[in-house]
Write a structure and sequence with these properties.
The protein contains 4 helices and 2 strands, in the order αααββα. It is an alpha+beta fold. It has one domain (3-99): Arc Repressor Mutant, subunit A (Orthogonal Bundle). A two-stranded antiparallel ribbon has the order 1-2. Helix 1 (3-18) crosses helix 3 (40-52). It is elongated.
């Protein structure tokens, strides 16, 4: 898969993983693991990029005597998921054209 396309897909997958409730790194990896492989280092790069793009808000909460970062999706992040869904419809139409007649 093209690196840019994969990057965009991973970003949206992470956003979708926290759409329903705030989450933290390990839980995000656990939630997406049935669908794709995501390393911890890749996840934290994605989370930082999404935070810088104002698609996530990060807050630190004490848990078991340590600080844990929780990620909350913003309206901009939700909008990105909706944009992706519309873009994917177009990609699927192109894909159908390409495989037509095989």
């Amino acid at each position: 898969m093209d690196a840019q396309l994969k990057r965009g897909v991973l970003d949206v997958c992470v956003l979708a993983a926290i759409r329903g409730e705030d989450s933290y790194g390990y839980k995000i990896i656990k939630d997406v693991s049935p669908f794709l492989e995501l390393s911890e280092s890749t996840l934290y790069t994605i989370l930082k990029r999404l935070e810088e793009a104002d698609m996530l808000i990060v807050k630190s909460v004490e848990h078991a005597g340590r600080l844990r970062k929780y990620y909350h999706i913003t309206d901009k992040g939700i909008k990105r998921i909706e944009e992706f869904k519309n873009e994917w419809k177009e990609i699927m139409m192109i894909y159908s054209f390409i495989i037509k007649g095989e």
